[in-house]
Amino acid sequence: GNPRRRAGAVVVARAQEASAGGATQTSTKRTALVKIGTRGSPLALAQAYLTRDLLKQKHPELSEDGAIEIKIIKTTGDKVLSQPLADIGGKGLFTKEVDEALLDGRVDIAVHSMKDVPTYLPKGTILPCNLPREDVRDAFISPVGNSLADLPEKSVIGSASLRRRAQILAKHPTFEVVNFRGNVQSRLRKLEEGDVTATLLAYAGLRRLDLQDKITAVLDLEEMLPAVAQGAIGIACRESR
């Protein structure tokens, strides 16, 4: 079978099994050599599992059961879904609590989507490496048309991104852009239920979750400029290590 598809299915299953916050995933009770901190969304877990697998490839001693532990940490961005991100603090909403766990020693490394990382890192942390970058473009998803230009006037577009909102309304001033929060799967479900006419998501995230079949079109950079650092995964650690 398709390894990416299998990985995507495993990610979703593990996310559903994880508790709301602070859950620990490890196959044995041995003391882990490396503890990875991550958010608990399916996409965040996919990125943590990718990091774990790359560590195992590079360091055979980490391939033993329980050598790497993944700790799920709930962030402010995960808890507050009713408001636009800009209204509750913008950058750092999906990283602050994970970085706090890093600083107090609960985890050894933190896996972040680089577009969520604030310009200035928390004191005592460094971000020494990134994983190979994915495709940076946005994906357009709609049951109604093949592109934004195909949609009828007054279409409702779901997006929590100020960047996407500004670009959409600049070209399509009759559209309405509504706050659209939640993980990738929940947003796709809302779209299927008819809450909005269309939505835009990072192509990289859909690829990592093996959800390319949901995509209507991948947007050229001229049509939708992506977020800074979109598609990049950063690995943070304590400055003292």
UniProtKB/TrEMBL annotation:
One of its GO terms (cellular component) is cytoplasm. Its EC number is 2.5.1.61. InterPro entries: HemC, Porphobilin_deaminase_N. One of its GO terms (biological process) is heme biosynthetic process. Pfam families: Porphobil_deam. Residues 34-240 form the Porphobilinogen deaminase N-terminal domain. Its cofactor is dipyrromethane. Keywords: Porphyrin biosynthesis, Transferase. Tetrapolymerization of the monopyrrole PBG into the hydroxymethylbilane pre-uroporphyrinogen in several discrete steps. This is hydroxymethylbilane synthase. It comes from Chloropicon primus.
